């Protein structure tokens, strides 16, 4: 499948499913492969087009059982799609990604073997790891009451902070690889609360320019954290403490600044580019990206409300 899966990936796999008389789907690979596997389970039991089932427009109500069982075998530690109920697929006709969601899409089995991730190159280890970090962070700051998810998110963040740099520097470090897989799964469990503006910025970057999703999150995250600085100061202060900052007696807003600095430092140490321009994103494309980001539902649960102008400003700050 494509690194950012497209509708045709689902249609081709669905045609093969029907031709061979299959009775289940195995998703083996990164989040893209796992998402396609889940979308295939919908497509082979429901009429097209796939866009009918977009969660944002209520399409989840059209997904009914039974659907073929999915077994998920991740080979990256990022999306946590192996424990999630949704799939993110780019629909060319719409020019954007859509989310397909249903409890029926939860994989029946998730097989998480860190040995399957040891050959992942350092930069891809870094970017998928920052996807897990962003899932946990945006779940924590999402203004939805769910203290259980908050606790899971904090645990996931602690694991990423402790193990991501190790996994990037030594791909054969199975302890680091295994804990990153756990962190990714925790992020996907936590973001049942929902996500935030970083994901609304990241999705169009992938749909329009093919930018790796975790990389897009990582590059945009510092600007989003600065934007959310006051609205999420309490949560960011807890993140600062996870990075080892002594926050005792420190005002939350000051601790939040330290958390932002720590995230920027982590990006630098694991080789994440500092700017969108370093990733080949043209400045003249930012206006269209802002339009697409506004259409994305993730920013609706950002701790600070976002207008189109806010999203454009965040793109420019990240560029």
Task: Explain what you see.
The chain is mostly helical and 319 residues long. Helices cover 51% and strands 8% of the residues. The chain has a three-stranded parallel β-sheet with strand order 1-2-5, covered by helices on one side. A two-stranded antiparallel sheet has the order 3-4. It is globular.
Number of strands: 5
**Biggest sheet, in brief?**
3 strands, parallel
Uncertain runs are none
End-to-end distance: 29 Å
Q: Which structural class fits the helix and strand makeup?
A: mainly alpha
Supply Rg.
Answer: 19 Å
What is the string of SSEs from the N terminus onward? HEHEEEEHHHHHHHHH
Count every helix, treating DSSP H or I runs of 4 or more residues as helices. 11
What global shape is seen?
globular
> Mean pLDDT, rounded to whole units?
95
Strand order of the largest sheet: 1-2-5
Task: Bin the helical content.
Answer: 40-55%
What percentage of amino acids are in beta strands?
5-15%
Features:
319 residues, 51% helix, two-stranded antiparallel ribbon, single chain, mainly alpha, 11 helices, globular, 3-stranded parallel sheet, 5 strands
């Amino acid at each position: 499948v494509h690194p950012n899966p497209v509708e045709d990936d689902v249609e081709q796999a669905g045609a093969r499913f029907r031709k061979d008389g299959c009775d289940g789907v195995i998703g083996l690979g990164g989040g893209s492969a796992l998402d396609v596997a889940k979308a295939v389970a919908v497509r082979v039991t429901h009429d097209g087009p796939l866009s009918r089932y977009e969660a944002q427009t209520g399409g989840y109500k059209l997904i009914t059982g039974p659907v073929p069982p999915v077994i998920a075998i991740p080979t990256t530690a990022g999306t946590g799609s192996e424990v999630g109920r949704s799939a993110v697929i780019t629909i060319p006709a719409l020019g954007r990604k859509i989310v397909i969601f249903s409890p029926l899409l939860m994989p029946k089995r998730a097989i998480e073997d860190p040995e399957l991730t040891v050959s992942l190159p350092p930069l891809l280890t870094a970017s998928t790891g920052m996807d897990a970090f962003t899932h946990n962070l945006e779940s924590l700051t999402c203004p939805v009451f769910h203290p259980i998810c908050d606790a899971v998110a904090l645990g996931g963040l602690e694991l990423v902070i402790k193990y991501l740099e190790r996994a990037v520097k030594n791909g054969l470090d199975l302890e680091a690889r295994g804990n990153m897989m756990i962190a990714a799964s925790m992020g996907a469990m936590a973001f049942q609360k929902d996500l935030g503006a970083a994901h609304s910025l990241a999705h169009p970057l992938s749909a329009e320019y093919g930018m790796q999703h975790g990389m897009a999150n990582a590059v945009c995250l510092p600007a989003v954290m600065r934007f959310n600085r006051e609205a999420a100061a309490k949560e960011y202060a807890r993140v600062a403490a996870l990075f080892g900052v002594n926050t005792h007696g420190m005002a939350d807003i000051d601790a939040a600044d330290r958390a932002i600095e720590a995230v920027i430092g982590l990006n630098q140490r694991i080789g994440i580019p500092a700017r969108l321009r370093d990733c080949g994103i043209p400045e003249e494309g930012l206006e269209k990206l802002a339009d697409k980001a506004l259409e994305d539902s993730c920013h609706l649960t950002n701790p600070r409300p976002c207008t189109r102008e806010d999203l454009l400003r965040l793109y420019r700050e990240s560029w």
